[in-house]
Amino acid sequence: MTKPADNTLLEQLDNIAQGISETFAPFCEVVVHDLQQPQHSILSIHNNLSGRKVGQAATEMGLARIASPDFPAVVANYANQFADGRPVKSTSIGLKDASGEYVAALCLNLDMTLFRGMQSMLSRFTETHAGPVEEHIEPVGSEAIRLRIDQYAAGLATTPRALKTSERIELLQTLKKEGLLDIRKSMETVAQHLGISRASVYLYAKQQPTVDDTA
């Protein structure tokens, strides 16, 4: 008979499992397995959603780990389901002992039922249809200006309102070259999106970049 995994390891793993389950309750079940006792591998189940019991046998994932130390340590976000058919997104994490053998596993099972329902409701809520005529509630082209500003900021790993002075100057030159400043009320749109005054926008538009960042 193989000896059980180190009790200290399992106790610490159980604490982690409890913390994760309480953080993501009531949607996530967290299970601790002792892989050296495959016939009775389940040591604890936090936020029990599957209806399983402590002392039940290891799943196919656990048996695969027991069979091969080369089995991936982390298998994340794979499709699964509970016994009653509810869809599940699962993640399984294996732990090895000093000899390189899998001795324990931490498994997360996320019930997707509610999330899929919410996804369907949001999809229905955001669904739009074409009207009999094309209507513009805001000045034509304003959205194009905002999108271009967002793209520029994203390229610098920042947000429009966090752009530095030199970056704002370069942005205005870019908008000018691309013809976006010719759009009606463009300066007002830029000012609102950057969170600055229109006077500042006009000032930046007149200046030239001091650093060439086009490379």
Describe this structure in a few short sentences.
This protein is α+β, with helices and mostly antiparallel strands. Helices cover 40% and strands 19% of the residues. It folds into two domains: 7-113, Beta-Lactamase (2-Layer Sandwich); 142-206, no CATH class.
What does this structure look like?
This protein has 215 residues and is an alpha+beta fold. The protein has 2 domains: 7-113, PAS domain (Beta-Lactamase, 2-Layer Sandwich); 142-206, no CATH class. The protein is built from 7 helices and 5 strands. It has helices at residues 7-24, 60-67, 113-126, 142-155, 165-177, 186-194, 198-206, and strands at residues 28-34, 42-46, 74-81, 87-96, 102-111. The protein has a 5-stranded antiparallel sheet, with helices on both faces. Helix 4 crosses helix 6 (186-194) and helix 6 crosses helix 7. The chain is elongated and about 75 Å long. The model is unreliable at 211-215 (pLDDT under 50).
